Amino acid sequence: MCNNKRYSVVKNTLLVIAFLLSFKGFAHGDLSIKIQEKTKEILKTPKDFKLYYQRGLLYQQHIEYAKALKDYNSSKVLGNTNRVLQYRMAEVNYLAMDYELALIKVKLYLESGEGDVKGKKLEAQILFNLEQYKKALKSYRFVINKMIDLRPEDIIEYCNIILAENNKNFKGALEAIEIGLNQLGPKTLSLQLKKLEYLEDSNQTQKVLKQYNYFILEYYRNEFWYFKKAKYLVKINKPEEAKIALKLTAIAIEQLDEKFKNMNSRRKIQKEIKKLYNEINNSEL
Q1: 69 near 92, Cβ under 8 Å?
Q2: Which pLDDT score, from 0 to 100, does residue 282 have?
Q3: Residue-range definition of the domain harbouring residue 265
Q4: pTM of the entire structure?
Q5: Are 41 and 156 contained in the same domain?
Q6: What is the mean pLDDT of residues 177-185?
Q7: What burial letters (b/e) apply to 70-102, b meaning 16+ CB within 10 Å?
Q8: Alpha-helical segments (H) within 112-151
Q9: Is 189 within a domain?
Q10: Residue 230 pLDDT more than 80?
Q11: Lowest-confidence region among 28-32, 54-58, 81-85, 275-279
């Protein structure tokens, strides 16, 4: 439960960052100026619901959620019936961590468009934060099946919900990773890393080693992956295989271009190789 709450805080922080980056042309100073300009327009035309909506969006980008909600409500009172207003109200309540109200708003939004992927994704995120994991999983499954521009972070978020609903369901999480790799391509690094993590967490030893071999073959700077594999082999009590992996790490380092050989990372890994060798030899005494 604690890990889910920690993820929730991180997720909300990332969502705020992503929201702001989606309007990357606006620095906070620029937003302040635009808010002032929009306020002047409102003073001239105080009954225009479009202006309140526009200023509300600016406030939302400026992370002034109470002011954003006030403007969205004013826009609604003045006659704004556009369903996107309901989405923005749900979104800003979600960002403000008022999940109960956010859920009410997103359901109102979805009433007029059940096939709305954006709305279903927000609904899933809200349900996740309310710890209604089964419902969140159902909503996000819809997103995964319907989304056209699927991104690695969508798959990872889906996996987080799968494991929140059942922290032993690595089978489901790994199946989701494969969906992502099939759609986004096998070289999607973040998904391959998650695959390795889930295989390790579920103690699928042979598949873990196969995944390490994937990274070794795929990446030019493979000394790192040889060493990671060696550490894993020590962890699963395979010291002789670990020694072989350490030797291959040293060989890979020697085969690096000269420009890489003088890097601090090279010297650091050489020290770690020696240390791990000593640990293996001492454990065998």
Answers
A1: yes
A2: 87
A3: 205-285
A4: 0.85
A5: no
A6: 97
A7: ebbebbbeeebeeeebbbbbbbbbbbbebbebb
A8: 117-129, 133-146
A9: yes
A10: yes
A11: 28-32
Give a yes or no: residue 143 inside a domain.
no
Give me the helices (H) in the chain, please: 2-21, 28-44, 49-61, 65-77, 83-95, 99-111, 117-129, 133-146, 152-165, 170-184, 189-201, 205-218, 223-235, 239-254, 258-261, 264-284
Domains: count for the chain: 3
Residues 69 and 91 in one domain: yes
> Are 91 and 169 contained in the same domain?
no
Residue 285 lies in a domain: yes
Examine the domain organization and report whether 163 and 192 are in the same domain: yes
User: CB under 8 Å to 71, separation ≥6 — which residues?
Assistant: 52, 53, 55, 56, 59
- 12-51 pLDDT, tens per residue? 555 555 555 555 445 566 999 999 999 999 999 999 999 9
Q: Tokens in use for 216?
A: 């070794």
Read off the tokens for 278.
Answer: 């000593």
Residues 7, 86, single domain; the answer is yes
The confidence score (pLDDT) of residue 69 equals 98
The vertex-188 CA angle with 221 and 219, nearest 5°, equals: 15
Decide if 148 contacts 112 (C-beta within 8 A): no
d(Cα 33, Cα 35) in Å, to the nearest integer? Answer: 5
Taking the chain, what is the end-to-end CA distance rounded to the nearest angstrom? 42
Instruction: Please tell me whether residues 10 and 110 are part of one structural domain.
Output: yes
Read off the tokens for 73: 């409500």
| CATH assignment of the domain containing 64 | 1.25.40.10
User: Does one domain contain both 5 and 94?
Assistant: yes
Is there a domain that residue 209 lies in? Answer: yes
User: Are residues 113 and 223 both part of a single domain?
Assistant: no
| Tens of pLDDT, residues 112-158 | 876 799 999 999 999 999 999 999 999 999 999 999 999 999 999 99
